[in-house]
Amino acid sequence: MNLSHRLPSRLKTMTKLHVSSLDAKRSSSVSAVSSFIMPPCSRPLRRAVIYIVAISISIFVLYRSLDSLDAVPSSSSIFSRIFPSFDSFQSLELEEPKLEDVLRRAATRDNTVILTTLNEAWAAPGSVIDLFFESFRIGEGTSMLLNHLVIIALDAKAYSRCRELHKHCFSLETEGVDFSGKEAYFMTRSYLKMMWRRIDFLRSVLELGYNFVFTDADVMWFRNPFTRFYRYADFQIACDHYLGRSNDLENRPNGGFSFVRSNNRTILFYKYWYASRIRYSGYHDQDVLNFIKREPFVFRIGLRIRFLNTAYFGGLCEPSKDMNLVRTMHANCCFGMDSKLHDLRIMLQDWRDFMALPLHLKQESGFSWKVPQNCSLDSLRRYDESMYEEESEPPGESQE
């Protein structure tokens, strides 16, 4: 017999049996516990327990937050204590964007933006702002320019409407002044305040280092105007009546469309223009421009002024005669919202009809505008004659 061989094998067998019995006991114990805690039908019960525990913890945390304060806080205060980032998130939601941020997002590579102002009357659905956007959409190479347009809202409803339509909006509400009325009629007190507020705002844009094209919302954009701006001019402005030369100070400007480069000369000029409202109290900004454009200060600062040809930048006062050349058309020389909207819709349809023509017919047909219609030029001419007999005394020509 060889005991040395049998003993180890027997010990191994006994060890395996002992381990097997321990595993069996452990397994049976686990099974017993499992069957007690998590029976096959207890999944809904387990979810309910977890839910109750979570609610209990939340209530305990809220109770401790309330207990540590002298008074019962608002719900936002509670969230701020539990989630420290809540306050910063809330401020981002409520804070209106700063002007410089809006301009930076909208600007071209050379820091140029397109600006227009909007009040409640012109912001209503089916009103001027909708026609303004439509002109960009149906114009030739103009839709992309909307990326650089900033709408300056003069009241809360205009700002809300802008947010619905466009991505670059800025609120410019003026304390103590309500620009939201049905319509700011030409030369009324509200109208004058709105025009002068605009001049002061444009000065601030120049001081931030941005060039701008300012356009009234009743200016229809049919082609890209940048190709027709003068390269070295500081201040370029459209005209109610153009006399044939861009540097002729006798041209009658219209403040509803202008291109201004940001530099020391233009900043000084806009400050001087705005300050001149005190000397010429009760006058329109456009009228005051007519008064000051010859003054020594303007020559002393070296401001380079150019007037834009109505062949390219026309309006109802003096429509562009060749639709192959036109860049913009303004519903100027027009009183009353209904008349303005009527003629603007006809103007847009004229453009659609022209663009639908074959190329050879566009060049040969002599296609022309069917406006003005409801916008009366005769009444404006009579008004104009009485006001321009002596430029130093009466107000200038209508802008709207």
From TrEMBL:
It comes from Brassica oleracea var. oleracea. It holds the Pfam family Nucleotid_trans. Residues 145-344 form the Nucleotide-diphospho-sugar transferase domain. InterPro entries: At1g28695/At4g15970-like (IPR044821), Nucl-diP-sugar_transferase (IPR005069). This is Nucleotide-diphospho-sugar transferase domain-containing protein. It comes from the Eukaryota. PANTHER family: EXPRESSED PROTEIN-RELATED, GLYCOSYLTRANSFERASE-RELATED.
